[in-house]
Design brief:
The relative contact order is 0.20. Strands 9-5-6-7-11-3-2-12 form an 8-stranded antiparallel β-sheet, with no helix packed on it. The termini are far apart. The protein is about 20% helix and about 30% strand. By secondary structure, the protein is an alpha+beta fold.
Length: about 220
C-alpha cells in the first residue's frame, strides 16, 4: 500500500450525491464569507470520509463469525431476535456494535450463507448506544442460513442521527463472509444474534473492524455463556 492509499480510501457510490451537496454548499459559503467556506471544506472532507469503503481481508479459516461493522462493542447480553423474522422466541446471545459518525458505515456479512429472510420495521430514532434501540428504533433484519443449517441474525439499527438504512441484498442471495450487504446513514448500530451455544470472543468496549475482527468461533465446543 502506498502512503497516499493509507489516507485516501475509495468512497461508496451511496456517498456521491452527499459529497456533491456538501461541496456545492461550500462554494456558496466561500462566496458569503471565506471562514465559513473553510468550515464547509472540513464538512465535505468528513462526508467523503464517512462514506469510505476500504477493502477488507476476512480471516481465511471457515467457521468464524466476523464483525459486520466498524465500531465499539456496546452490549453483550441474551435477547430474542426480531419477531418479524419468524424465528424461535428463545433468547440468543446478542452482540451490539455501536458506530459513531466517524466510523466506516459499510456493513459486511458476518458469515457465509444464504439470506432466508429480510424484514424492515420502521421505528424511532433513540441514541443507538442505548439498549432500547434494539427494540424501538427503525431496523432492517437479516437471517442468514449457514452450511450447517444454523441461522445467524444480523440487524441494522438506525440511531439518533441516522435516518436511512440502505440494503444491497435480497432474500435468497448467497453471501460470503465479509461481503457488503448494506450501510446506514449517519451513525448507528449493528446487532448480531449468535446461534445457540456460541460464545462471543469479544469484550465490552472492544474496537471492531468490519470484515476482519473475529467475533465468535462456530466450531468451538458448546459452552455456557
Amino acid at each position: 500500500m502506498t502512503m497516499l492509499g493509507t489516507f485516501i480510501k475509495p468512497m461508496h457510490r451511496e456517498g456521491l450525491r452527499f459529497v456533491a451537496i456538501f461541496a456545492a454548499v461550500t462554494v456558496v459559503l466561500f462566496v458569503l464569507w471565506a471562514p465559513l467556506g473553510w468550515v464547509g471544506v472540513g464538512l465535505t472532507v468528513w462526508c467523503y470520509y464517512f462514506f469510505r469503503d476500504p477493502e477488507r481481508v476476512p480471516p481465511a479459516r471457515d467457521g468464524l463469525v466476523i464483525s459486520p461493522a466498524d465500531g465499539i462493542v456496546s452490549l453483550i447480553e441474551p435477547a430474542v431476535p426480531p419477531a418479524e423474522l419468524g424465528l424461535s422466541a428463545a433468547p440468543l446471545t446478542r452482540v451490539s456494535i455501536f458506530m459513531s459518525v466517524f466510523n466506516c458505515h459499510v456493513n459486511r456479512s458476518p458469515v457465509a450463507g444464504r439470506i432466508t429472510a429480510i424484514a424492515y420495521r420502521p421505528g424511532k430514532f433513540f441514541n443507538a448506544s442505548l439498549d432500547k434501540a434494539s427494540s424501538d428504533n427503525e431496523r432492517n433484519s437479516l437471517s442468514i442460513e449457514m452450511a450447517d443449517g444454523r441461522h445467524l441474525v444480523v440487524v441494522q439499527i438506525a440511531g439518533l442521527v441516522a435516518r436511512r438504512i440502505v440494503s444491497f441484498v435480497s432474500e435468497g442471495a448467497t453471501l460470503r463472509a465479509g461481503d457488503r450487504f448494506g450501510l446506514i446513514r449517519f451513525g448507528s448500530r449493528l446487532d448480531v444474534y449468535l446461534p445457540d451455544g456460541v460464545v462471543p470472543l469479544v469484550e465490552l468496549g472492544q474496537t471492531m473492524v468490519a470484515g476482519e475482527t473475529v467475533l465468535a468461533d462456530l466450531t468451538a465446543p458448546e459452552q455456557e455463556a
